[in-house]
Amino acid sequence: MVWDPQQYLKFSGHRLRPALDLLMRIPDLGPREVADLGAGAGNVTKLIRERWPSAAVTGVEGSAEMVAAGRKAAPDVEWSHEDLGHWRPAKQYDVVYSNAALHWLPDHAALFPSVMEKVAPGGMLAVQMPRNFLAPSHVLIGETALSGPWRSKVEHLVTPPPVEGPAFYHDLLAPLAQNIDIWETEYLQVLEGDNPVKEWTKGTWLTRYLDVLEGDEKAAFEAAYGMRVAKAYPKNAAGQTLFPFRRLFMVAQRKG
Length: 256
Description:
Blueprint: H1 5-8, H2 12-24, E1 33-37, H3 45-51, E2 56-61, H4 64-73, E3 78-81, E4 93-99, H5 108-116, E5 119-130, H6 136-146, H7 151-154, H8 166-173, E6 177-191, H9 196-202, H10 207-210, H11 215-232, E7 241-254
Parallel strand pairs: 1-2, 1-4, 2-3, 4-5
Antiparallel strand pairs: 5-7, 6-7
């Protein structure tokens, strides 16, 4: 995927809220080394740096475009441009934080124990992932992919939801953790503008499909999805669009 920081940050306030909710649930244990996995454009990484100013903070990000934006937003952070799926640090971290990133990686049964092993004994793993993949905003992307002349090019992207339920992650982390806090929150996001749910997904999940297509076909796919999603999320009497969005959180402390 080619990430567009400006598109992603169109809804930066709504995207920032769960990141802050996660950050504030991490106990203040005075970490010396912190890693932000999937650091994106750095708007959250700089808040991590502000919370623990004496810690060495590393932002790990696979998109060159996002790394460039992150270096501007958080110049006092060490930036590592690497694929999260191949993250193999030589050291452990007191806090490993990841906001809205790990759902892009496959095989969570192997991934989460592997990431937990990069946490120092007594340290914290803090993860937030969207779990909105069965909502119309995401289901209609798949329906659009399977019902147009572009089907052969994009149908391989129509896959089951990438995030499991809370109990799945509890059972994965329990053998390695002394404390686990897992919860879900559904945010009722009030969006403004023309077809804002399309614009929201265009910053994340829809990008996977648009990257595969070109020219008129790409524009036609976006328009076809736009029509579907506008009907699913009509404006209210005040001209606003209500967009419920569910997210899964977990904070786990590594056994000492």
